[in-house]
Amino acid sequence: MDELLKQIQQYTAAIEAASPSGREQVEAFRIQYLGTKGIVKSLMGSMKDIQPDQRKAAGQALNEFKKLAEAKLESLQDANESAGEDDQKFDLSLPGDFVGVGTRHPLSIVRGRIVSIFKKLGFAIAEGPDIEDDWHNFGAMNLPEDHPARDMQDTFYISQNPSWLLRTHTSSVQARVMESQKPPIRVICPGRVYRNETISARAHCFFHQVEGLYIAENVSFADLKQTLYFFVQEMFGKEVKVRFRPSYFPFTEPSAEMDISCLICEGKGCNVCKHTGWVEILGSGMVHPNVLENFGIDSNKYTGFAFGMGVERITQLKYRVNDLRLYSQNDIRFLQQFTGAV
């Protein structure tokens, strides 16, 4: 008992005189006195040698010693942290670190611009699933299983019988809108589509479309033309020339493709327009009566028009991008060019 009290007195004096500085010295103090093999643990282990009638007094002395060591450690740690904070103070008058300005993807910029233009004309936005069933993607659009036009939209099938596939166009969204709404209908359908094509500078296995649909009474081809004239002037400027060429689409009749004068050569002829001075930007036409009847819409009472454009093609003309693969390669050098376009 006497030997234990003598040791406690010696260690108490050493603790009171200790003045470690810095994290390493403070940590060494903790290990020396309060570590798993430290002095406090060692002294407590010697309690087994104390006479039973003296253990209460010895325990009280040890507890006081332990509290002293813990209090000393806490004060040393607080002092060390305060000194560290003083060392880490920084000058608020110095200029901050440069933070680079991000940018939106060019396809997102153009898609947003297309949507905003058609919103001015009262078109709502409609969206649908990327994985679609055969009926909504093909059958409802007047494309039965044996229709040769399906060869132009070779796609990725997920399963067959029943057939589920990655949609080849956002016309499937139009189908779902006609299925759930009654005329008048005025929507645009932006989204990603997929086709089994060889990836090159002019083609990709996925791309983006914006399709439009307007169904009401007394809708004519003149309404379609004026709508698309307005879009072109808003997107490319009033000086751009427009022409319509007869075409064929199973879901529209009559159908037409729309060209604009080449923005790169100003109609004089170049590689982009194949030296014709014109570039195709979209397909359009009056909704086929069969499509209307597929959804219980009276084709004798209602008529409508539809159109569809590739966002990549519009972006190519808007920003003169000559390779479709650049859109999906995530090359920061390419994306940084559109910082000013946000």
From TrEMBL:
One of its GO terms (molecular function) is magnesium ion binding. Its EC number is 6.1.1.20. Its main location: cytoplasm. GO terms for cellular component: cytoplasm. Mg(2+) binds at residue 253. Binds 2 magnesium ions per tetramer. The keyword Ribonucleoprotein does not apply. Its cofactor is Mg(2+). Keywords: Aminoacyl-tRNA synthetase, ATP-binding, Cytoplasm, Ligase, Magnesium, Metal-binding, Nucleotide-binding, Protein biosynthesis. The keyword Cytoplasm applies. Residues 114-317 form the Aminoacyl-transfer RNA synthetases class-II family profile domain. PROSITE patterns: AA_TRNA_LIGASE_II. InterPro entries: aa-tRNA-synth_II (IPR006195), aa-tRNA-synth_II/BPL/LPL (IPR045864), Phe-tRNA-synth_IIc_asu (IPR004529), Phe-tRNA_ligase_II_N (IPR004188), Phe_tRNA_ligase_alpha1_bac (IPR022911), Phenylalanyl-tRNA_Synthase (IPR002319), tRNA-bd_arm (IPR010978). It is an enzyme of class 6 (ligase). It catalyses: tRNA(Phe) + L-phenylalanine + ATP = L-phenylalanyl-tRNA(Phe) + AMP + diphosphate + H(+). Signal peptide: none annotated. GO terms for biological process: phenylalanyl-tRNA aminoacylation. It is found in: Cytoplasm. It comes from the Bacteria. Tetramer of two alpha and two beta subunits. Belongs to the class-II aminoacyl-tRNA synthetase family. Phe-tRNA synthetase alpha subunit type 1 subfamily. This is Phenylalanine--tRNA ligase alpha subunit. The gene is pheS.
